Amino acid sequence: MNSFTYTRADAIDVAVDERASEKTAKFIAGGTNLIDLMKENVERPTRLIDITRLPMTSITETVDGGLRLGALVTNADTAYDKRVVKRYPLLSQAILAGASPQLRNMATDGGNLMQRTRCYYFYDLATPCNKREPGSGCSAINGFNRIHAILGTRMSDGDGQLAEPQCIATHPSDMCVALAALDAVVRVTGKNGERAIPFADFHKLPGNTPHVDNTLEPDELITSIDLPANGFPKYHMYLKLRDRASYAFALVSVAVALEIENKTITNARIALGGVAHKPWRKPEAEALLVGKPATKENFQAVAESLLTGAQGYGHNTFKIELAKRAIVRALGQAAKLEPTA
Ligand code: SF4
Q: What is the SS3 assignment for 168?
């Protein structure tokens, strides 16, 4: 591990100033991913700015009837908060599907958004990796890519052709899949003041800058995550498929939030995890369900639409069919057509 300095910020503007003055510094809170990356020499910050004393540790009501999750609230406290359980059960379910109790007790909500891919090659300094070292290549495309992406990996080259991917990593979070489905908003503070980033715009696809995971400016700090008033408490499901029953990342996960009136779907949200560089949504596919009854046929049509353009890279090709089946099952469970156990 490289040597680094450590400071503890006692105010948000101090933390932002410190980060802005040292481009190679990093904020640290729970440290559940960053410390691992530092031990492996993947991350080599010159300074850690401890933000755990900043006033971002509570869950509060917002004026529009939603909830504001302070960036330093732990994943465990969020998942078990009575208001979250009652009004945003999809979020609680997703958080509890992730990591382990010990990790959820340490990991913060802001940090959950900032965690990096678990691509094996990203952690292995002996192998080329465009995310770790831009321009070096991607070891996963022709390597062992069982956990890798099937959507959003190829970008247009400007001539209408799809260029070869530079990175096929997936975003590892469960919580973020639910936040994407709920249309959460990420609130940040930087040298230029505060701004709100719609969740769909927070994480990015790899494109030709796979080393950049999100749209934060270097000096910006996540201060909170806002949940809109509608938490879809009645019809929801977070389905996570993985290699073992706990403490494993998703091969495919599906967050579903529905509103159903008189047996007709009036609102539908579907976000996928484990399949792309960011939580994957496709509003055109969701729109296919609106005004329709909750039937397996309609769910299958949505699943086909969501996976349009999916590409496997060998070991992960099974995910295409797995994702379709998971979507149909999660929609059926959310609509209470089939049991959740
Ligand atoms: Fe690196 Fe991305 Fe390729 Fe993994 S998939 S080796 S993170 S460039």
A: coil
Q: Measure 150 CA to ligand 1 centroid, in angstroms.
A: 13
235 in Cβ contact with 259 (< 8 Å): yes
What average pLDDT does the structure give for the chain?
96
Q: Whole-angstrom Cα distance, residue 237 to residue 256? A: 5
CATH number assigned to the domain with residue range 5-52, chosen from the 4 options 3.30.43.10, 3.10.350.10, 3.40.50.261, 3.90.1580.10: 3.30.43.10
pLDDT digits (tens, 9 = 90+) for 92-151: 999 999 999 999 999 999 999 999 999 999 999 999 999 999 999 999 999 999 999 999
Identify the residue whose C-alpha is closest to ligand 1 atom 3: 138
Q: Which of 304, 303, 321 is nearest to 312 (CA)?
A: 321
**CA 233 – CA 90 distance, rounded (Å):** 7
Q: What is the pTM of this model?
A: 0.97
Taking the C-alpha atoms of residue 140 and residue 277, their distance in angstroms, rounded to an integer, is: 14
State the CB neighbour count (10 A cutoff) for residue 146.
Answer: 15
Would you state the CATH architecture of domain 235-334? Answer: 2-Layer Sandwich (3.30)
Which ligand 1 atom is nearest residue 169's CA? 5
The reported pLDDT for the residue numbered 341 is: 67
Ligand 1: which atom is nearest the Cα of residue 137? 8
Give the rounded percent of residues in the chain with a pLDDT score beyond 90.
94
Ligand 1 first shell, C-beta below 6 A: 117, 119, 121-122, 129-131, 138-140, 148, 167-169, 210
C-alpha torsion sign, points 240, 87, 101, 213: positive
Q: Which one, of 220, 168, 173, lies nearest residue 75 by Cα? A: 173
Residues 47-62 as b or e (16 or more Cβ within 10 Å = b): bbbbbeebebeebeee
pLDDT category of residue 269 using cuts at 50, 70 and 90? very high
Q: Name the closest-CA residue to atom 2, ligand 1.
A: 167
Q: What residue spans define the domains of the chain?
A: 5-52, 235-334
pLDDT average, residue stretch 31-54: 97
